[in-house]
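Continuing the batch. This is chain 6 of the set; chains 1 through 5 are on the previous pages. Same settings as before, nothing changed between runs. Recording input and output for traceability.
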Amino acid sequence: MASIRKKQLSIRSKFVQFRGKIRREFQANKVPHGEKRSSAFPYFLSIYPAIFVFLQQNKNKTKMKAVVSIIMGSTSDLPIMEKAAKLLDEFEIPFEINALSAHRTPKEVEEFATNAQKNGIKVIIAAAGMAAHLPGVIAAMTTVPVIGVPINATLDGMDALLAIVQMPPGIPVATVGINAAQNAGILAVQMLAVGDPELQAKLANYKEGLKQKIVKANADLKEVKFKFKVN
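Output for chain 6:
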């Protein structure tokens, strides 16, 4: 897929930069051009560990395959949906982001939805505003769980919320609040965590962090002084 190809090109670019650095260091060590390889061999032995570490650190990135797909009706939704992307990044869950429209690219939506499971997608986060048919249309064509994010484009987002949440029997869409992309990301992680103790532990730590923020907030509020404040 395009996202995997993009990661591969990114790693290749990093390696080209790394290779240039090695070349500059090699020249700085004044190994003359044309000198016998045997004289340069000790230098190559000295830098081999660095090359090995570089390759080990990046090999998994090229093999990453998306398990969550973030779909939005337009790139104008990205400032909202990037909250879900950041959450998935935080939990180190591979994902992809694409723009699809149920009305303007119906064939592409069908192709995506019908092939999602085969392509390894385990959860779909779909965002749309106004008529907001995208999440429901995708849910109708796949058994992969779909999380709907209503976007506030008109009518304070209420039109999108009702369009996504009011699905007919048999075609559910797990709908979060208006513009609540972060909650969609958390819900996706919770779905993936079923049967995954390591991911469950990460979620527990995340929620403990939320608790500590409130504990700190209360501690800070105790320092706020008012004449008639009793705590």
